[in-house]
Design a protein that fits this description.
The chain has 200 residues and is α/β, with parallel strands linked by helices. It has a single domain, classed as 3-Layer(aba) Sandwich (Rossmann fold). A seven-stranded mixed β-sheet has the order 3-2-1-4-5-7-6, with helices on both faces. Strand 6 and strand 7 form a beta hairpin. Helix 4 crosses helix 5. It binds S-adenosylmethionine (SAM). S-adenosylmethionine binds next to helix 3, helix 5 and strand 2.
C-alpha cells in the first residue's frame, strides 16, 4: 500500500527529480508551473519553428529542458540554437541533462545583450517557456519586442494555460505585434494554448 505522498508523486512530478516543484515553491511567479511541460506540449511548441528560415532559434525559460530536447532532435544543426535560462538551479540541471545544447545563463529581458555576447545577428524563431502572464507589463514588452526585433520576421511562440493571449491583444497592437492562436494541446496537464506573435 502506497503512502499518500507516494501516490501523489506521479501526478505532481513528471520526473523523479523534485527540483521543478521545489523551485516553484520558492519562486512561484518566476517559475509559473509545478511540473515541466509534457511531450505533447513540447512537440506542439516546436511545430511553428521554420528551420528553413535563416537565423537562430532561441529558447527562453528552458527549465529542465522539455522543449530543448525536441528542439535538439529537430534542429538541422544545434549550432543554430541558443537556450536561455535565468535560474541557476535549473541552469545546472540543463548542463547535466542536455550537455551538448548551446546554453546561456541570463535574463530573457536582456536578450539583445545575450545575442550580442553569443555573436548572433539574426533570429528566426523564439520558443518561450517563460511565465509571461505573471510578468509586469514593461518586462513583457521588453521580452517580446526585444525578441521580435532580433530578425526581419521572427515568430515568438508562447504557451499559456488560458484561452486568451497571456498579453492582451490591445497591448500587443500598441507595441506593433500581431497575434494568432497557433496550437492547442489537450494532452497536457493542464491543457495549453499556443500563441504565435509576429511583427504587425
Ligand atoms: C514554466 S517554466 C517552463 C520550463 C520549460 N520550458 C517547460 O515548459 O517545462 C518557466 C521557466 O522560465 C524561467 N524564467 C522565468 N523568468 C525568466 C527570465 N526573465 N529569463 C529567463 N528565464 C526565465 C524559469 O526559471 C523557468 O525555468
Amino acid at each position: 500500500m502506497l503512502e499518500p505522498i507516494q501516490r501523489l508523486r506521479p501526478k505532481l512530478l513528471s520526473t523523479d527529480d523534485p527540483v521543478f516543484l521545489l523551485r516553484w515553491l520558492r519562486h512561484p511567479t518566476r517559475v509559473g508551473a509545478v511540473t515541466p511541460s509534457g511531450r505533447a506540449l513540447s512537440q506542439a511548441m516546436v511545430r511553428p519553428v521554420d528551420w528553413a528560415k535563416p537565423g537562430h532559434v532561441i529558447e527562453l525559460g528552458a527549465g529542465m529542458g522539455a522543449f530543448t530536447r525536441v528542439l535538439m532532435e529537430q534542429a538541422p544543426n544545434i549550432e543554430r540554437l541558443l537556450v536561455v535560462e535565468r535560474d541557476p538551479v535549473f541552469f545546472a540541471r540543463l548542463q547535466r541533462r542536455v550537455p551538448s545544447a548551446p546554453l546561456a545563463m541570463g535574463d530573457a529581458a536582456d536578450l539583445p545583450e545575450l545575442l550580442a555576447r553569443h555573436g548572433i545577428s539574426e533570429v528566426g524563431s523564439i520558443v518561450s517557456g517563460l511565465p509571461i502572464l505573471s510578468m509586469p507589463r514593461d518586462i513583457q514588452r521588453r521580452i517580446i519586442t526585444g525578441a521580435l526585433n532580433a530578425g526581419p520576421d521572427p515568430v515568438f511562440i508562447q504557451f499559456t494555460y488560458g484561452f486568451r493571449s497571456p498579453v492582451p491583444l490591445s497591448k500587443l497592437a500598441e507595441w506593433g505585434v500581431k497575434a494568432e492562436r497557433c496550437g492547442f494541446v489537450a494532452m497536457n496537464v493542464p491543457p495549453a494554448w499556443i500563441w504565435c506573435y509576429r511583427k504587425a
